[in-house]
Amino acid sequence: MEADITLTVDGRPRALRVDTRTTLLDALREHLDNTAPKKGCDHGQCGSCTVLLSGRRVVSCLILAAAADGAEVTTAAGLGDEAAPHPLQQAFVEHDGLQCGYCTPGQVCSAAGVLDEAAAGWPSAATPPDDLAEGSAPVLTDAEIRERMSGNLCRCGAYAGIVAAVGDAARAHAPAESGGNR
């Protein structure tokens, strides 16, 4: 059975017809030629296919495209480009947060989600109880970043650069009045 769906991908409305069993990842890659999200494990375990779905980070290999009908999808390609890179993309380059680059689009999308989640005050398993005051944002320490990014694997082991890149981007965009490392 097929379904007609509409997605806004990287700011551009796209209409397509997909088999109802098609994942969002396959719709993006095979139907829309958007190869930013990568097919790694195809089981939701590696994070290579991470995109932002209506602002929330998701592994696109586990979501049916038909279930995302009407949603806004942002891939790493939609965050920025060569002429105007997103601050996270720039930080990944500056901190050598990549080696082969296969996982990088998923890492960057996940990192964007991490920054938004922390700014919204969402705790993680690593958030100290003192950081859970109502209305406050958790401090993105290296341990906090590692916990929040733990769903994104890097076969090359570029984790030190990834953590540094996310921390740098978090500090660059923390509100001045907080004085914190969001």
Automatic annotation (TrEMBL):
<dbReference type="InterPro" id="IPR012675">
    <property type="entry name" value="Beta-grasp_dom_sf"/>
</dbReference>
<dbReference type="GO" id="GO:0046872">
    <property type="term" value="F:metal ion binding"/>
</dbReference>
<dbReference type="Pfam" id="PF00111">
    <property type="entry name" value="Fer2"/>
</dbReference>
<dbReference type="GO" id="GO:0016903">
    <property type="term" value="F:oxidoreductase activity, acting on the aldehyde or oxo group of donors"/>
</dbReference>
<keyword id="KW-0408">Iron</keyword>
<dbReference type="InterPro" id="IPR001041">
    <property type="entry name" value="2Fe-2S_ferredoxin-type"/>
</dbReference>
<dbReference type="InterPro" id="IPR036884">
    <property type="entry name" value="2Fe-2S-bd_dom_sf"/>
</dbReference>
<protein>
    <submittedName>
        <fullName>(2Fe-2S)-binding protein</fullName>
    </submittedName>
</protein>
<dbReference type="GO" id="GO:0051537">
    <property type="term" value="F:2 iron, 2 sulfur cluster binding"/>
</dbReference>
<dbReference type="InterPro" id="IPR052914">
    <property type="entry name" value="Aldehyde_Oxdr_Iron-Sulfur"/>
</dbReference>
<dbReference type="InterPro" id="IPR016160">
    <property type="entry name" value="Ald_DH_CS_CYS"/>
</dbReference>
<comment type="pathway">
    <text>Alkaloid degradation; nicotine degradation.</text>
</comment>
<keyword id="KW-0560">Oxidoreductase</keyword>
<dbReference type="InterPro" id="IPR006058">
    <property type="entry name" value="2Fe2S_fd_BS"/>
</dbReference>
<feature type="domain" description="2Fe-2S ferredoxin-type">
    <location>
        <begin position="3"/>
        <end position="79"/>
    </location>
</feature>
<keyword id="KW-0411">Iron-sulfur</keyword>
<keyword id="KW-0479">Metal-binding</keyword>
<dbReference type="Pfam" id="PF01799">
    <property type="entry name" value="Fer2_2"/>
</dbReference>
<dbReference type="InterPro" id="IPR002888">
    <property type="entry name" value="2Fe-2S-bd"/>
</dbReference>
<keyword id="KW-0001">2Fe-2S</keyword>
<dbReference type="InterPro" id="IPR036010">
    <property type="entry name" value="2Fe-2S_ferredoxin-like_sf"/>
</dbReference>
